[in-house]
Design goal:
The structure is a homodimer of 406-residue chains. With 406 residues, chain A is an alpha/beta fold. Chain A contains 15 helices and 17 strands.
Chain lengths: 406, 406
């Protein structure tokens, strides 16, 4: 089965928003084993939409259309599809009642059209908006209509359309996503070249800011068989790249790190200079962080490093704020004064100004103080912009903390 | 003139990446006054790409293709277009030399194909990669080929393609983007309903997280005339909505606020609880912040509020951490201890746990202490998730600071 994705909406053609629906649906279909050969975006225009649908029907088995199910005159996806396929529309009482319940008032004339359904269509209840989705089985073709807003479309697809499509497929595809930090995509390639040429499961690398994703995907007759194939492959990847893999289930580093701290009840405090609170804020995205994060400081100025952390004036004079020595004293200082188990320090040149030949923009020192002593790390994040340097520094600090907990 | 955007790349069809190129180009074309009626995504497949190009040529005057200009076998956009239009390709010596210079080595066989150009095409030098872009004028049609990677495509378009297209247009379109905070999209609609129905300039609202954008676009024979039309419209919008407009040139609130602090040399320090450093980090995105931000604290635990800020134990006992009283003492405390001109405090319930009926998740207090005294603000960010609450709290704090500087 191959699929085509059609996003309906003039706001997309004006470049007002990015077509995240197409990416979401393409990824989801790929995971079920349905190939997508075309994605199209067309405006709220009956003639052009008809043309696009006709074209898609000539080359795809499955059409998924998003958008144009709203209550305004611009919303015409359902009407256009029904008219093209020669299907009458009828008023679906249950949908009308659901819309009235959702809006908490009697249905307006414009909302009423959202309750009209093409004859014979499967109706998908919308738990996050007014417009129901629909699936039309037309001969060999399947046409799925989903709402445009991602927060309505995505749950409806995941909960209602995906199971429907999975039943149509003779096999199951299962993916596991590994996240790696501290090694580049080409070095990863060197270590698992043979695995990346494997047919089933496949191993596909994707570069992200500061990290690499490995997607392991298996195809089999059942979930269990597919999961089994993945496990074997992941075991082999672990053997070769284990020290760089921080998540086997696509969880971001800041969350993985925060959860580990919470689980082990290890308290942490940071003294941040150039990152200015980004490290603490990033840890605090995880609920429950209040059990291990009590205080943290942003010591942007040298005086603040002295005042809050007891960094020696002589150290700052002799080695400068961006130095291994200062990072060490900052980490010791925050650990001591906060009484946390782990003290983290981040001091660096985020730029764009302030760099010299000896200390260029992108030079960052991270210190970690624990009961076992204090270590410092030097990063050279050369050639990046201010905010990329700050984010990379935070990622490195999270990795250093996470590794210290293993 | 109407345009069609074609993105070439199997990684798009697999849902590995989002098609940001289409959004960028659509917005840019819209700003030049070129209508986009279709966007298509197709894979690295000669037959399907040919089909898509033929279809586009039948319905659009301008085709912009991105992707498929690389050195691998999968890259076939240029070859497919040339063959479809019956154009021979020749080796462009200058492009070959530029590629060798960029790679700092003798050109490989695969990179060499990137230096082949269809006869008669305009060549666009790539300052950020190896593949040159090209413009083919084919009768009434214009076909533009650009590299896929955004950091190569976007500058090439802006610096080379846009001026080319602007010359082809009989008129000029100019936009100004206003950013509004503290008023909802429908209230904005109420106040400028008549202006939003204007034909030239047009006024279009876009909702973003925590704020609304108003895009004012004028069409005229010259830049000056268009700018003039925009200025008159913006003057009227200022009359009605001025108190909510924080930027007349699409600059984000954290940058606007930071620049104002730096310009006026007004120092600031924050005491953050639930936002945990996000406020300080957000201000520090702007270079030069070190002249006004010397220190900031994250006082997540009650004890930390007492220790760092001198918040009274009785206040915390009686009113709780999330209260107007605590916010006030936090703001006073950080201002006093840091000696900053402005002391900001943020304390709230980010959730998902910890809410009660009296103090629900989403309840946030912000305090601002200046030489003129201390004010507190209560926010009820109900129904949002943890990180949306934290970001909204930061936006509100930035707005409060910014307004205090006016």
């Amino acid at each position: 089965m191959n699929g085509e994705i059609i996003a309906v909406g003039t706001e997309l053609l004006l470049g007002n928003i990015v077509n995240t629906n197409a990416q979401f649906l393409s990824e989801e279909l790929s995971n079920i084993g349905i190939n997508v050969y075309y994605q199209t975006v067309v405006g709220d225009n009956k003639e052009r939409l008809e043309e696009v649908i006709k074209c898609a029907l000539s080359r795809a088995d499955l059409l998924i259309l998003t958008g144009g199910l709203g209550p305004t005159d611009d919303d015409l996806t359902k009407e256009t599809v029904a008219s093209l396929l020669g299907l009458d529309m009828y008023l679906h009482k249950e949908s009308q009642e659901l819309i009235e319940k959702y809006l908490n008032k009697k249905i307006s004339q414009s909302n009423l059209k959202q309750a009209y359904i093409p004859k014979g269509a499967i109706i998908l209840k919308n738990d996050n908006g007014t417009a129901p989705g629909i699936i039309i089985e037309n001969g060999e073709k399947i046409i799925v209509l989903l709402p445009g807003p991602p927060k309505e479309m995505a749950p409806m697809f995941s909960q209602k359309v995906k199971p429907y499509l999975e039943k149509k497929s003779p096999y199951v595809m299962r993916s596991k996503i590994l996240r790696l930090f501290g090694i580049g995509e080409s070095s990863i390639g060197d270590k698992i070249k043979d695995l990346m040429q494997n047919d089933n499961p496949t191993v596909a690398p994707y570069a992200k800011d500061n990290e690499t994703i490995l997607r392991v995907t298996a195809r089999a007759a059942s979930k269990e068989e597919a999961d089994n194939l993945n496990s074997k492959m992941i075991k082999e990847i672990d053997k070769r790249l284990g020290e760089f893999i921080y998540s086997h289930d696509d969880t971001a580093l800041n969350i993985v790190c925060a959860r580990k701290l919470i689980e082990k009840n290890i308290t942490i405090a940071a003294a941040e200079s150039c990152t200015a609170g980004l490290f603490a804020a990033t840890l605090a995205e995880t609920p429950g962080i209040s059990s291990v994060l009590f205080e943290s400081v942003v010591t942007y100025a040298n005086e603040a490093k002295e005042k809050y952390l007891g960094v020696k004036h002589e150290t700052l004079e002799k080695f400068g704020a961006v130095s291994e020595e200062t990072a060490r004293e900052m980490a010791d200082g925050i650990r001591e004064r906060s009484k946390a188990d782990i003290g983290i320090s981040i001091t660096g040149l985020a730029g764009p100004d302030g760099g010299t030949e000896k200390k260029p923009v992108g030079l960052v020192y991270i210190g970690i103080a624990t009961e076992d002593g204090t270590k410092t790390y030097e990063l050279k994040l050369i050639g990046r912009d201010r905010n990329k340097i700050r984010h990379a520094a935070v990622m490195n600090a999270l990795s250093i903390v996470y590794k210290s907990l293993e």
